[in-house]
């Protein structure tokens, strides 16, 4: 009884006061999102963001980021340099204040930075708190100043170590292995992130260097065209329908808007919005203003020049955005972010600014470039006809469902549990594997939907063909959450959607087709973490009644090593599975479906731009980008089965 009282008691002694940067080390996820690879990369982003803020203020034009062999990182800029004099309130060097006290920086108010991104003044101190070691050198006012830190605390005073006529800041830090699961940086993802930053800040040079390989990798990112170059890059795997990117810009007070847009002959909308270099993945007022403006402008233009008759309906927003690639970049002094992930812009005045600037500038462009206007309008009208055909197909599907005794696909073996938060559906390649999965599953929480044959490649198809496709309609109906703009995750009938296909070329193709479909027509399904890939084993290694499963050659070798077995022993056997259909229901359950023992891979959408590029490259019409990608990455392939 006394033990229970001790556990449940609540008094003054249990109130913790975390001083200085202790709170950051105690709850790092609150400041950088997670301690996974994503959080690790956020450390670099915060220091680079400080340098970019210097560039936005007109005081810096070059940033260098170096990943060293020990996974420490150095960020160097040629900005003004962090102030080093005594802080009037704290009584210590401002350099130390910036790196050891939360919410200390030049971004609160209208002084040093009129526009900024990052964590608004807490970036440097958070990076310091989560680093095993950090060293900052400042070139300013003729001197070189330096201070060293360890896990957030200064270990040396701010000292002068030399004289110089240069200016800028150099920060070197090594992430703390006590905090992070892994401190090995992904250089490719760094290139992607800082390429984006270079596009958004035309003229700035960001040089990335990876010293870890034998031959260091150097990537220089510099785009004088800014977001015009960004749109050209995004459309590089697509066939555009007009040559030049449409660019408009405008400002009011201290708010600046830039929009670049270009249409391609595809069917997907790719519009990316940013506020102060921060990707607003949930949209916001700037995106709303953009969509309202282009819908109005194209309808007004279409009616003025009789593309649409008086009796016809207006083009919808979907119609005018089909095949559109666009970048919207806003720079503003006081951004207001909303949404769970703080990636939705809420400033009401920005909607009006974007709408007014785009309406005026885009209308002028169409008047001055009638040939481009005609090409775009013809595409919009074709999209409208396809949308109407899709609507009729959708209504027909609903009518059929209402007349059926069951609205679910005939091949679906549903689960008995009705609470979507605990259920999962396996989309299984082939009737044979589907049969084994149905027998081996946990019928209470697991549903099975077998698919047969290749489905439609939606990258090359409009939405009307999607509704007509007999391979995709069972998936749409089974998930129950709609499609396209109507997709609603709150109506989803299963929490996990698990793609289960053979570990061969055909299986890989089916996975890619399904993922393309989910990304293009059910993107929130991927964004909110509902999609998984089943990982069936490739091998069974057994000796007598003792058997083990392996997912690759390395695991096979590990089994031999740990058991003391040798391949040449006659009583040691290895079976290579050619497909899911070779497994009996018990084996499929044990290796691939049992939540306690299986391996499944969550599909995460860390970067929508990279995802769009991948799907366009591999599933689009253009052959050259595929050839180029294969040529560049062939040396990296380690296992063709995956």
TrEMBL record:
<dbReference type="InterPro" id="IPR014721">
    <property type="entry name" value="Ribsml_uS5_D2-typ_fold_subgr"/>
</dbReference>
<dbReference type="InterPro" id="IPR013759">
    <property type="entry name" value="Topo_IIA_B_C"/>
</dbReference>
<keyword id="KW-0238">DNA-binding</keyword>
<dbReference type="GO" id="GO:0046872">
    <property type="term" value="F:metal ion binding"/>
</dbReference>
<keyword id="KW-0799">Topoisomerase</keyword>
<dbReference type="GO" id="GO:0005524">
    <property type="term" value="F:ATP binding"/>
</dbReference>
<comment type="subunit">
    <text>Heterotetramer, composed of two GyrA and two GyrB chains. In the heterotetramer, GyrA contains the active site tyrosine that forms a transient covalent intermediate with DNA, while GyrB binds cofactors and catalyzes ATP hydrolysis.</text>
</comment>
<feature type="binding site">
    <location>
        <position position="429"/>
    </location>
    <ligand>
        <name>Mg(2+) 1</name>
    </ligand>
</feature>
<dbReference type="GO" id="GO:0034335">
    <property type="term" value="F:DNA negative supercoiling activity"/>
</dbReference>
<dbReference type="InterPro" id="IPR000565">
    <property type="entry name" value="Topo_IIA_B"/>
</dbReference>
<dbReference type="InterPro" id="IPR013506">
    <property type="entry name" value="Topo_IIA_bsu_dom2"/>
</dbReference>
<dbReference type="GO" id="GO:0006261">
    <property type="term" value="P:DNA-templated DNA replication"/>
</dbReference>
<feature type="binding site">
    <location>
        <position position="502"/>
    </location>
    <ligand>
        <name>Mg(2+) 1</name>
    </ligand>
</feature>
<dbReference type="GO" id="GO:0005737">
    <property type="term" value="C:cytoplasm"/>
</dbReference>
<dbReference type="GO" id="GO:0003677">
    <property type="term" value="F:DNA binding"/>
</dbReference>
<dbReference type="GO" id="GO:0005694">
    <property type="term" value="C:chromosome"/>
</dbReference>
<keyword id="KW-0460">Magnesium</keyword>
<feature type="site" description="Interaction with DNA">
    <location>
        <position position="457"/>
    </location>
</feature>
<dbReference type="InterPro" id="IPR003594">
    <property type="entry name" value="HATPase_dom"/>
</dbReference>
<keyword id="KW-0547">Nucleotide-binding</keyword>
<dbReference type="Pfam" id="PF00204">
    <property type="entry name" value="DNA_gyraseB"/>
</dbReference>
<keyword id="KW-0413">Isomerase</keyword>
<dbReference type="Pfam" id="PF01751">
    <property type="entry name" value="Toprim"/>
</dbReference>
<dbReference type="Pfam" id="PF02518">
    <property type="entry name" value="HATPase_c"/>
</dbReference>
<dbReference type="InterPro" id="IPR020568">
    <property type="entry name" value="Ribosomal_Su5_D2-typ_SF"/>
</dbReference>
<dbReference type="InterPro" id="IPR018522">
    <property type="entry name" value="TopoIIA_CS"/>
</dbReference>
<dbReference type="InterPro" id="IPR001241">
    <property type="entry name" value="Topo_IIA"/>
</dbReference>
<keyword id="KW-0479">Metal-binding</keyword>
<dbReference type="InterPro" id="IPR006171">
    <property type="entry name" value="TOPRIM_dom"/>
</dbReference>
<dbReference type="InterPro" id="IPR011557">
    <property type="entry name" value="GyrB"/>
</dbReference>
<keyword id="KW-0067">ATP-binding</keyword>
<comment type="subunit">
    <text>Heterotetramer composed of ParC and ParE.</text>
</comment>
<dbReference type="InterPro" id="IPR002288">
    <property type="entry name" value="DNA_gyrase_B_C"/>
</dbReference>
<keyword id="KW-0963">Cytoplasm</keyword>
<comment type="function">
    <text>A type II topoisomerase that negatively supercoils closed circular double-stranded (ds) DNA in an ATP-dependent manner to modulate DNA topology and maintain chromosomes in an underwound state. Negative supercoiling favors strand separation, and DNA replication, transcription, recombination and repair, all of which involve strand separation. Also able to catalyze the interconversion of other topological isomers of dsDNA rings, including catenanes and knotted rings. Type II topoisomerases break and join 2 DNA strands simultaneously in an ATP-dependent manner.</text>
</comment>
<comment type="similarity">
    <text>Belongs to the type II topoisomerase GyrB family.</text>
</comment>
<dbReference type="InterPro" id="IPR036890">
    <property type="entry name" value="HATPase_C_sf"/>
</dbReference>
<dbReference type="GO" id="GO:0006265">
    <property type="term" value="P:DNA topological change"/>
</dbReference>
<dbReference type="InterPro" id="IPR013760">
    <property type="entry name" value="Topo_IIA-like_dom_sf"/>
</dbReference>
<feature type="site" description="Interaction with DNA">
    <location>
        <position position="454"/>
    </location>
</feature>
<feature type="binding site">
    <location>
        <position position="504"/>
    </location>
    <ligand>
        <name>Mg(2+) 2</name>
    </ligand>
</feature>
<feature type="binding site">
    <location>
        <position position="502"/>
    </location>
    <ligand>
        <name>Mg(2+) 2</name>
    </ligand>
</feature>
């Amino acid at each position: 009884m006394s033990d229970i009282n001790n556990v449940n008691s609540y008094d003054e002694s249990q109130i913790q006061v975390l001083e200085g940067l202790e709170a950051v080390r105690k709850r790092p996820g609150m400041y950088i999102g997670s301690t996974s690879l994503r959080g690790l990369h956020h450390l670099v982003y915060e220091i680079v963001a400080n340098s970019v803020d210097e560039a936005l203020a007109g005081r810096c034009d070059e940033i260098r980021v170096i990943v060293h062999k020990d996974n420490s990182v150095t960020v160097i800029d040629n900005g003004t340099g962090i102030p080093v004099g005594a802080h009037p309130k704290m009584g210590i060097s401002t350099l130390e204040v910036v790196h050891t006290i939360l919410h200390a920086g030049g971004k609160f108010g209208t002084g040093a930075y009129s526009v900024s991104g990052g964590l608004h003044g807490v970036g440097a101190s958070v990076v310091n708190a989560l680093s095993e070691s950090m060293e900052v050198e400042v070139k300013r006012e003729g001197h070189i100043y330096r201070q060293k830190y360890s896990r957030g605390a200064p270990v040396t005073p701010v000292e002068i170590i030399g004289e110089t006529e240069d200016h800028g800041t150099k920060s070197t830090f090594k992430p703390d292995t006590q905090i992070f699961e892994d401190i090995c940086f992904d250089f490719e993802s760094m290139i992607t992130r800082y390429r984006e930053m270079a596009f958004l800040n035309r003229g700035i040079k960001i040089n990335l260097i990876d010293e870890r390989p034998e031959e260091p990798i150097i990537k220089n990112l510099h785009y004088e065209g800014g977001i015009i170059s960004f749109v050209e890059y995004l459309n590089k795997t697509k066939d555009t329908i007009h040559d030049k990117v449409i660019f408009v810009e405008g400002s009011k007070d201290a708010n600046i808007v830039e929009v670049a847009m270009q249409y391609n002959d595809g069917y997907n909308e790719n519009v990316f919005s940013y506020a102060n270099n921060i990707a607003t993945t949930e949209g916001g007022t700037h995106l709303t203003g953009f969509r309202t403006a282009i819908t109005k402008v194209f309808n007004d233009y279409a009616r003025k020049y009789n593309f649409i008759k008086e009796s016809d309906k207006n083009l919808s927003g979907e119609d005018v955005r089909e095949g559109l690639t666009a970048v919207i970049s806003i720079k503003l002094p006081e951004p207001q972010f909303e949404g769970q992930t703080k990636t939705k812009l809420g400033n009401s005045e920005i909607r009006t600014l974007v709408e007014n600037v785009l309406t005026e500038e885009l209308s002028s462009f169409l008047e001055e470039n009638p040939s481009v206007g005609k090409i775009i309008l013809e595409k919009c009208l074709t999209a409208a006809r396809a949308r109407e055909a899709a609507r009729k197909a959708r209504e027909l599907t609903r009518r059929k469902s209402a007349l059926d005794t069951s609205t679910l696909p005939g091949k679906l073996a549903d689960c008995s549990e009705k609470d979507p938060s605990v259920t999962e559906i396996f989309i299984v390649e082939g009737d044979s594997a589907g049969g084994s999965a149905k027998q081996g599953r946990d019928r209470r929480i697991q549903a099975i939907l077998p698919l047969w044959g290749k489905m439609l490649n939606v990258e090359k198809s409009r939405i009307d063909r999607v509704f007509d496709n007999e391979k995709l309609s069972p998936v749409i109906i089974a998930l129950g959450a709609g499609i396209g703009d109507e997709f609603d995750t709150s109506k989803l009938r299963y929490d996990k959607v698990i793609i289960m296909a053979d570990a061969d070329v055909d299986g890989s193709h089916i996975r890619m087709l399904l993922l393309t479909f989910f990304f293009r027509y059910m993107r929130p399904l991927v964004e909110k973490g509902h999609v998984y890939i089943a990982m069936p084993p490739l091998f069974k290694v057994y000796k007598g009644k003792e058997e083990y499963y392996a997912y690759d050659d390395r695991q096979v070798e590990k089994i031999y090593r740990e058991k003391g077995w040798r391949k040449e022993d006659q009583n040691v056997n290895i079976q290579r599975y050619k497909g899911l259909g070779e497994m009996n229901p018990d084996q499929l359950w044990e290796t691939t479906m049992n939540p306690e023992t299986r391996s499944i891979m969550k599909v995460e959408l860390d970067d929508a731009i990279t995802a769009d590029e991948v799907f366009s490259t591999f599933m689009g019409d253009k052959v050259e980008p595929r050839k180029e990608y294969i040529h560049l990455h062939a040396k990296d392939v380690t296992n063709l089965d995956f």
